[in-house]
Amino acid sequence: MEQSVVDVRHVEKIYGKKNENQFRALQDISFSIQAGEFTGIMGASGSGKTTLLNVISTLDKVTSGDIDIAGTNITTMNQDALAAFRAQKLGFIFQDFNLLESMTVYENIALPLFLQNKTGKKVEESVEKVAEILDIKNILGKYPAIISGGQKQRTAAARALVHNPSMILADEPTGALDSNNAASLLETLKQLNEEHNVSIMMVTHDAFSASYCQRILFLEDGRLYKEIQRTGTREEFFKEILDELAEAGKKKL
Ligand SMILES: Nc1ncnc2c1ncn2[C@@H]1O[C@H](COP(=O)(O)OP(=O)(O)OP(=O)(O)O)[C@@H](O)[C@H]1O
Ligand SMILES: [Mg+2]
């Protein structure tokens, strides 16, 4: 049996307190992600994509339901345990990359290891290994302010990867990039996924970005209503995604 890295069961997220204005952002969501899968989440603005990513990434709590990540149920863990779990098992790529300007590229990449109180030779080895993969070994001593946009992305990808997480979570990672840089970040993610078997979950509303995934989950008003799997080329998948988005658009009219 294949090992699932994420198992989401009947998850519901309601924002707001009882007797106040409540909003049901996620309703009865269930799905699994196998180790090594590159999964996309798509849906209109407000459909619940970020909410779903946030509850899986342990940054926010579910109202009901269960989520297992790498075999651990995260819905019952306390804050301290969650922070430790996050630092150990998950890697994040944010829309604006969130690099710390006062730290060098090396220090930015090493951050997840520092957060686990790791020091010394081990940190150095891990940083150099991912820097090699992402081709940024020559800028490790520089500060984010003086490196290119593409180098910033690869630094963010290296930081998401340095501690061998079970999964990388990315929320609109190409949102702030021009098409060349977007394509190169997506190629990097694809490479990490295919050659290093890293599981990736990526929120995007862009069909081009989504076409790099093997599978897309579609959200509408907090519900998963459809899932498509890539069977042919990326170009074919791209067209299929565009068709699906057009279909979803028609329903709204
Ligand atoms: N903290 C909050 N309190 C109340 N409602 C919220 C909160 N955060 C999000 N929502 C609502 O939940 C719904 C889902 O929000 P979410 O941010 O998950 O959407 P999204 O699919 O990521 O949208 P976008 O594509 O615009 O980023 C929206 O209707 C939003 O207004
Ligand atoms: Mg969002």
What is this structure's SSE topology?
Blueprint: E1 4-15, E2 23-34, E3 38-43, H1 49-56, E4 64-69, E5 72-73, H2 79-89, E6 90-93, H3 105-114, H4 121-133, H5 149-161, E7 167-171, H6 179-196, E8 199-203, H7 207-210, E9 215-220, E10 223-229, H8 234-252
Parallel strand pairs: 3-8, 3-9, 6-7, 7-8
Antiparallel strand pairs: 1-2, 1-4, 4-5, 9-10
Bound molecules: adenosine-5'-triphosphate and magnesium ion.
Magnesium ion binds at residues 49-50.
Descriptive notes:
With 253 residues, the protein is an alpha/beta fold. The chain has one domain: P-loop containing nucleotide triphosphate hydrolases (Rossmann fold), CATH 3.40.50. It contains eight helices and ten strands. The protein has helices at 49-56, 79-89, 105-114, 121-133, 149-161, 179-196, 207-210, 234-252; strands at residues 4-15, 23-34, 38-43, 64-69, 72-73, 90-93, 167-171, 199-203, 215-220, 223-229. It has a six-stranded mixed sheet, with helices on both faces. The chain has a four-stranded antiparallel sheet with strand order 2-1-4-5, covered by helices on one side. Helix 6 links the parallel strand 7 and strand 8 (199-203). Helix 3 (105-114) crosses helix 4, helix 3 runs parallel beside helix 5 (149-161) and helix 4 crosses helix 5 (149-161). The chain is globular, with a radius of gyration of 18 Å. The structure holds adenosine-5'-triphosphate (ATP) and magnesium ion. Magnesium ion (MG) binds at residues 49-50. Residues 49-50 line the site of magnesium ion.
